[in-house]
């Protein structure tokens, strides 16, 4: 499966671009390490990349660029805010997506990645006169659950919340963020308001109808009340995942 490569220098970028076949869809994420939405988008993009197999010739290539460190490249693609996604084929910009909407990013990638596979579908049609036009609902659900399975394991502690840690969109999410901060927990997060597919699908996947949801090591802990109960019965519940306990910089 595909994964995201971090581009660390202009020569690294030039070498990567020149190595790609002309038909490859190049997916570029411009980010900044201080911007919380970039962490969420990196999680989204990593999960999406895992859905695309490595083919011969290469159908998709996924890279990440620090927009501030490699400002020349950022300026070349008119990056004025992060996260910022650029889709490129044959050196030509096909589409850009600014912001952290997972729905817009997924739709844009699927729209342009599909153009490679659609050519194969037409060729097959010449041979057998038949092209599938509708996706099997069961297959679609299976793919969604695979994506969700990867998402809940994106970090040892994953919070699925309404909004972001800096701007929670509900009181329960705000309280859970506060608990994680109080316990110095290093965690990943996903704004379920930015992706309705995840918002609805995770309810069934987890068999848990409400948000926020906290996952630890790929297992559902529960919502705010459950987390409070866990801490009440075990003050060291988050100790293993505490930045202080691991001696990392806050």
UniProtKB/TrEMBL annotation:
Lineage: Eukaryota, Fungi, Dikarya, Ascomycota, Pezizomycotina
GO biological process entries: intracellular iron ion homeostasis
Name of the protein in its database record: Thioredoxin-like protein
Keywords: Iron, Iron-sulfur, Metal-binding
SUPFAM superfamilies recorded: Thioredoxin-like
GO cellular component, one term: nucleus
Occurrences of domain Thioredoxin (ranges): 11-102
GO molecular function, one term: metal ion binding
Functional description taken from the UniProt entry: Monothiol glutaredoxin involved in the biogenesis of iron-sulfur clusters. Binds one iron-sulfur cluster per dimer. The iron-sulfur cluster is bound between subunits, and is complexed by a bound glutathione and a cysteine residue from each subunit.
Domain Glutaredoxin: from-to ranges: 157-221
């Amino acid at each position: 499966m595909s994964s995201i490569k971090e581009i660390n220098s202009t020569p690294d970028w030039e070498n990567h671009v020149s190595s790609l076949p002309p038909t490859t869809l190049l997916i570029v994420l411009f980010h900044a390490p201080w911007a919380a939405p970039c962490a969420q988008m990196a999680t989204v993009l990593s999960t999406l990349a895992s859905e695309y197999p490595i083919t011969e010739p290469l159908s998709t290539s996924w890279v990440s660029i620090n927009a501030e460190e490699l400002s020349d490249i950022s300026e070349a693609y008119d990056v004025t805010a992060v996260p910022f996604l650029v889709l490129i084929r044959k050196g030509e910009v096909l589409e850009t997506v600014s912001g952290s909407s997972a729905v817009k990013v997924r739709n844009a990638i699927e729209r342009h990645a599909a153009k490679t596979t659609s050519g194969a579908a037409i060729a097959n049609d010449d041979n057998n006169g038949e092209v599938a036009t509708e996706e099997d609902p069961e297959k679609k659900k299976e793919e969604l659950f695979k994506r969700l399975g990867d998402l809940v394991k994106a970090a040892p502690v994953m919070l699925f919340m309404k909004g972001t840690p800096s701007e929670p969109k509900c009181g329960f999410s705000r309280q859970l963020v506060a608990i994680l901060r109080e316990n110095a927990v290093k965690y990943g997060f996903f704004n379920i308001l930015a992706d309705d597919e995840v918002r609805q699908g995770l309810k069934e996947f987890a068999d848990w109808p409400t948000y926020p949801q906290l996952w630890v090591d790929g297992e559902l802990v529960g919502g705010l009340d459950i987390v409070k109960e866990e801490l009440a019965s075990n003050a060291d519940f988050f100790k293993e995942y505490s930045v202080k306990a691991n001696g990392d910089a806050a």
